[in-house]
Write a structure and sequence with these properties.
This is DUF3027 domain-containing protein. It comes from Nocardioides astragali. By secondary structure, the protein is of the alpha+beta class. It has three domains: 75 residues, Nuclear Transport Factor 2, Chain: A (Roll); 44 residues, no CATH class; 72 residues, High-Potential Iron-Sulfur Protein, Chain A (Irregular). Helix content is 20%, strand content 20%. It has seven helices and nine strands.
Length: 264
């Protein structure tokens, strides 16, 4: 059953009685089999009433038809404002829209795909800072072009580099991901990456927290891992005696010849 939130105020009596008119309006956009019982009318304002009818259209459970009627002051004949199909509390609706850029996950980009970043991306700052005084006015397009030209002339290589916010966002993402200490692989590891000979340290502010795994037999090979991460492919891991494979038996030397086989 669809529950409708009542509006304050008493609906206009002439408009509230125009149920048949409201149903006829719905039948202009829907089949008779798709329109159910009248669910009621509510006031939307002065001389403005909305009628609701159950929707029986296949694939739309919990939806309802909504017809809004009005009339001019001192007029008796209602006028149709709009007719729409709306979702109720139990209706099946699409999930909230998420921009494409926010829906992207690692591995979604295919060869040839482009993912441009915005000029004001907080994760990046100009490699050569120009006008970094907070009292300076924001840079216009020409000023930004000059910054890029200066970066090229100085041979800085990259026009922009990671900002403090960008570094922090990356660190939080890596630490909470599969290469962090809370990953199931790390919780069952015999030791942490800090003491592993396959760990390659990073430079910069993240060097005390992260490194890159260089063990080609490990799940994290070539990936960023936290120093308190770990796995079973640690360089110093040793198997207990009971975990070691059983030794192969000595080869048996067959001394039988073809003549011996004929006498058997």
């Amino acid at each position: 059953m669809i529950s409708l939130v009542p509006r304050a105020g008493k609906p206009d009596s002439a408009l509230a009685k125009a149920v048949d008119l409201a149903r006829d309006v719905v039948l202009e956009v829907a089949e008779p089999s798709e329109v159910g019982e009248h669910l009621g009318a509510r006031a939307e304002g002065e001389r403005l009433v909305t009628h609701h009818f159950a929707c029986l259209r296949p694939g739309y459970p919990g939806w309802y038809w909504s017809v809004t009627l009005t009339r001019a002051k001192r007029a008796k004949d209602p006028t149709v404002n709009e007719v729409v199909l709306l979702p109720g509390e139990d209706a099946i609706v699409a999930p909230p829209w998420v921009p494409y850029k926010e829906r992207l996950q690692p591995g979604d980009l295919s060869p040839g795909d482009l993912l441009p970043v915005e000029d004001e991306d907080v994760r990046l700052v100009p490699t050569y800072l120009f006008g970094d005084d907070p009292l300076d006015p924001p840079m216009d397009a020409d000023a930004k072009a000059q910054v890029r030209r200066v970066a090229e002339d100085l041979g800085l290589g990259r026009v922009r580099t990671l900002s403090r916010e960008g570094i922090d966002m990356a660190a939080e993402r890596w630490y909470a991901g599969d290469g962090g200490p809370d990953a199931p692989l790390a919780k069952s590891a015999p030791d942490t990456c800090t003491t592993c000979g396959f760990l390659m340290r990073l430079n910069g502010s993240l060097s005390e927290t992260f490194g890159v795994c260089a063990n080609g037999n490990a799940n994290d090979d070539g990936r960023v891992v936290s120093l308190d991460h770990g796995c079973g492919a640690h360089s110093e891991v040793k198997l207990a005696r009971k975990q070691q494979p059983l030794p192969m038996p000595d080869h048996a030397f067959d001394t039988l010849t073809d003549d011996d086989l004929e006498t058997i």
